[in-house]
Amino acid sequence: MANYAASLKQKAQLRLNEMMQMPEFRYKSNPALMLALKNSGITLPAYNDYLNGKSSDQRDVETLMIIRSSEDLGTARAYNHTGSLGDSAATALTWNTFTRTFKYTLKQEDRNQFNATEIFAKQLYNAFIDINNGIGTAAQAFLSTNKNQVSVSSPKGATWDATAQAYVIDAVDQERYIQKIKSIMRQDYFNGMYDVIADSLKYQDLEHYAAQGSGNETNYGYQYSGLNIAESTEMDVPDGYNGGAYIMPVGTFAALPWIPKKNIEGWGSYNDSIGGYGTVVDPISGLTMAYHQYASGADNDTSGSETQDVDFQCEVSIDLGFTTAPINVTNKSVINLTVQGK
């Protein structure tokens, strides 16, 4: 029921405690987003310095890298040997803005069981939930859009589906799925630790087999060292496959947050018609988000408040730029989609 009409002071009412309200304010897990945020500082070490200098969302940004160069080996030493110069490349970063608006009024609490602080807090938390759901979906979509499209030559332990742009692990190798996809990464010269984001179906398998250690009749747990595995409830798997997972080297996928300079500095007043700019910390993601609020006179008699009232219009916002480690090969990416054959 809109405008808090159900909680107007018209009859005796009992209010649920915070624990009983939690299911109403549930939100989805966002493993891709949490992974990307964790990597933001290590992917671009100077990013915090850049944040302090970026004063406008119109300012373009590029990441720089030195390109890997390869030459044929010689078979003899020479006194007059010559070599080639190396090269560098720039990759443009793109930010997307995510905003969520809401409203509360000056006199709304006067006719309601909930006070102004409670109403505002829940409105703000609703905004945080919606933004987190939105940026979580965007992070997951980035993985799909930017996944690897180039197979290693004659992959061992898997086949390549060029249409799905995925490595296929045969159904009979279900128990050794992790072992197979780790080998694929090494065959592509990606060594070390890996981040894995699996769809719900494949995650159930991985969680089960990871628990089958040396004390079980068959030990599958040995495969799982060197991995960070998380479940995505919204990962799309190509048709015809029995679950799947993205795998990438640790620290190669990041989300770069940004908010306007005036919000960071603070400006204006939340209680006038021009409004004020400030920041607010999202308790779900830990991100510092931009906050703007302004006031205007309003007649809210038909919406649970008073005829002579004030509306406070609010906006929470964040800019996020997703990026991954660049590779100077067309359509090549560190983000590899793997799927389970049926």
Any overview of this molecule?
Helix 2 crosses helix 5 (116-145). The model is unreliable at 5-14 (pLDDT under 50). The protein is of the alpha+beta class and 342 residues long. It has helices at 18-21, 31-38, 40-43, 47-53, 116-145, 177-187, 200-210, 261-265, and strands spanning 62-66, 88-92, 96-105, 159-161, 166-169, 194-199, 227-232, 244-249, 253-258, 267-268, 276-281, 288-298, 309-324, 336-340. The chain has 2 domains: 28-67 and 87-144 and 256-323, no CATH class; 152-252 and 325-340, hypothetical protein PF0899 fold (2-Layer Sandwich). Strand 6 (194-199), helix 7 (200-210) and strand 7 (227-232) form a beta-alpha-beta unit. The strands form 3 sheets. Strands 3, 9, 10, 11, 12 and 13 form a 6-stranded antiparallel beta sheet that branches. Strands 4-5-14-8-6-7 form a 6-stranded mixed beta sheet, with helices on both faces. 23% of the residues lie in helices and 27% in strands.
Radius of gyration: 26 Å
Q: State the helix count.
A: 8
Shape: flat
Distance linking N and C termini:
47 Å
User: Segments where pLDDT lies below 50 for 5+ residues?
Assistant: 5-14
Strand content: 25-35%
Structural class: alpha+beta
SSE arrangement, N to C: HHHHEEEHEEHEHEEEHEEEEE
Number of domains: 2
Task: Explain the layout of strands and helices.
Layout lengths: L17 H4 L9 H8 L1 H4 L3 H7 L8 E5 L21 E5 L3 E10 L10 H30 L13 E3 L4 E4 L7 H11 L6 E6 H11 L16 E6 L11 E6 L3 E6 L2 H5 L1 E2 L7 E6 L6 E11 L10 E16 L11 E5 L2
Parallel strand pairs: 5-14, 6-7
Antiparallel strand pairs: 1-2, 3-13, 4-5, 6-8, 8-14, 9-13, 10-11, 11-12, 12-13
